[in-house]
Amino acid sequence: MSTTGSESEDEDEDAPKSDGERGMTGRLPDAISAEDLKGRPVKPRTKAARIASVAKGREDFKDKIKEKAKSRQGGKTNKEQRRNKPQMMAVQSLKAKGKKARNASQKMQSMKKHIKTLSKNKNHPKRRRG
Q1: Can you give the residue ranges of every domain in the chain?
Q2: pLDDT tens digit string along 77-87?
Q3: Residues 6, 13: contact at Cβ < 8 Å?
Q4: Alpha carbons 15 and 39: distance in angstroms, whole number
Q5: Average pLDDT in the 60-67 region?
């Protein structure tokens, strides 16, 4: 049999080569990549290095959040609005919701308590400080 060099190489390998593995000798199709073999990066030993790495992470995060907000169509989300709402305003709205949810007997009990407090303080009115 007279075979050329290229034909003998094709006959030696039974499995066909994939496009990604073509021309790379010694590669296995399901091999581990270099990225998979890399371990964790070395932890910074000095305080300054640790603080620098933290600051770097914060900057990246802030940029990511700003980019996300810019790319979004429309205004703020409901979650953002709730998060940025003034604290006392949120507390007040909870009180108002609680008052609306009361039944008649609870309202009467609250009014009786209020009248009792007023009658206790009627002889000692509050004085303005000036």
Answers
A1: 42-71, 83-116
A2: 898 888 888 88
A3: no
A4: 33
A5: 84
